[in-house]
């Protein structure tokens, strides 16, 4: 028989070292602005980056259609598409 506590998701502790001062300051400012502890704010930031929100297929399709509708009407030539992809790249 397995102990019940072994079957539960247990939170894990993480210690961060050598955090750059500017990152620490921004995290602290953000935590204060959201009325959260530094720990809670760090978790929210990590979740936002590492656990992307799931988007329903219908919502993704609606966004794609909205983007397509925002484009100028007409045909795009392959070279025009290639030029647009390279725009702003070194």
TrEMBL record:
Protein name, entry field: Antitoxin FitA-like ribbon-helix-helix domain-containing protein
Source taxon at top rank: Bacteria
Lineage, opening ranks: Bacteria, Pseudomonadati, Pseudomonadota, Betaproteobacteria, Burkholderiales
One Pfam family in the UniProt entry: FitA-like_RHH
InterPro entries for this protein: Arc_rbn_hlx_hlx, FitA-like_RHH, Ribbon_hlx_hlx
A biological-process GO annotation: regulation of DNA-templated transcription
Residue intervals of the Antitoxin FitA-like ribbon-helix-helix domain: 13-49
């Amino acid at each position: 028989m397995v102990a019940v506590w072994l079957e539960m998701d247990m939170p894990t502790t993480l210690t961060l070292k050598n955090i750059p001062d500017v990152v620490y300051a921004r995290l602290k400012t953000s935590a204060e602005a959201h009325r959260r502890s530094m720990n809670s704010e760090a978790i929210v930031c990590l979740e936002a980056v590492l656990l992307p929100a799931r988007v329903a297929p219908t919502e993704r399709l609606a966004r794609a259609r909205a983007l397509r509708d925002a484009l100028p009407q007409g045909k795009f030539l392959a070279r025009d598409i290639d030029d647009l992809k390279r725009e702003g790249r070194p």
